[in-house]
Structures are given as C-alpha cells and as structure tokens.
Specification:
mainly alpha
Length: 147
C-alpha cells in the first residue's frame, strides 16, 4: 500500500472508529474511565492530523471532522455520567472554539466547511443541554453557604 494522503486519511478514520467502538463498549458496561481513555485517544489521534488533512482540501476531510465531533460528544457524555459536567462543558467549549478557528481559515467551498458548521451546531446544542442540566441541579440544591 502506498502511503499517500488518501491512505493516511483512511487509516486515520478507521483507527478512530476502532477506538470509538472500544469506547462505546466500555460506555455500555458503565466503565467510564476506560471509555474516557478510548474516546480521548480517538480525539488526540484525529486532532494531531486534522490541520494537514484540511490543508489538502480532500473531500473526506468532512468525515474527519465528524469523527472528531462524535468522539468529543462521547467523551463529554462520559464526563456527564461521572458527574463531571463542568469537564464536559469545558471540552465542548474548547472544541467549539477550535472549530470556529478552523472555519475562519477555510474557504466556504472547502469540502469540510459544511461538516464544520453542522458539527459545531451539534456541539453547541449539547453544551447548552449540559449547562441547563447543571443550572437546574444547582438551583434545586439552593444556594451554597460558606461557613
């Protein structure tokens, strides 16, 4: 197999999907730390190569964005299940910021432009849902008084 950009992207996406499936299995088992590990490794793998993939404007660049978004959403959900809502909100916020920076550097006809917009909307929605749940939990518990 020749290691051109096309093959690198395919291997990258496949490796990320394997990590996601392993994370999903651990998630289903309630093994949050293990799921965190797999989702985080998927995120790190994709982010490491994202800028190079976007530079070459390949039509599958959108798939990498989608895989990254799914990994972030999954990791955020494991944080939520562990009552680490602020960690999930922070992760979503940082990823949204990263996606916005990428959007500012891409032309509107770049193959990943639509995927970036769509996935940013999904991340923003999830972030607001988590914030809403956190705000409700805080208001139900009443004010925290210091002694």
């Amino acid at each position: 197999m020749s290691w051109n950009l096309e093959n690198v992207k395919r291997v990258l996406a496949d490796s990320s999907k394997v990590l996601q499936r392993m994370g999903n299995y651990e998630f289903e088992q309630g093994q949050w730390q293990n799921a965190n590990h797999y989702y985080m490794n998927s995120i790190l793998l994709l982010r490491e190569h994202l800028s190079d993939i976007l530079k070459h404007q390949h039509e599958q660049a959108g798939e990498v964005i989608i895989c990254l978004s799914i990994a972030v959403q999954n990791l955020s959900e494991t944080y939520h299940r562990q009552n680490r809502v602020n960690c999930g909100i922070s992760l979503l916020s940082r990823t949204l910021h990263h996606f916005q920076q990428l959007q500012n550097t891409l032309s509107s006809d770049h193959p990943a432009a639509i995927a970036l917009l769509r996935e940013a909307c999904k991340l923003r929605l999830l972030m607001f849902m988590h914030k809403s749940i956190e705000d409700q939990a805080t208001s139900i518990g009443g004010p925290i008084l210091s002694s």
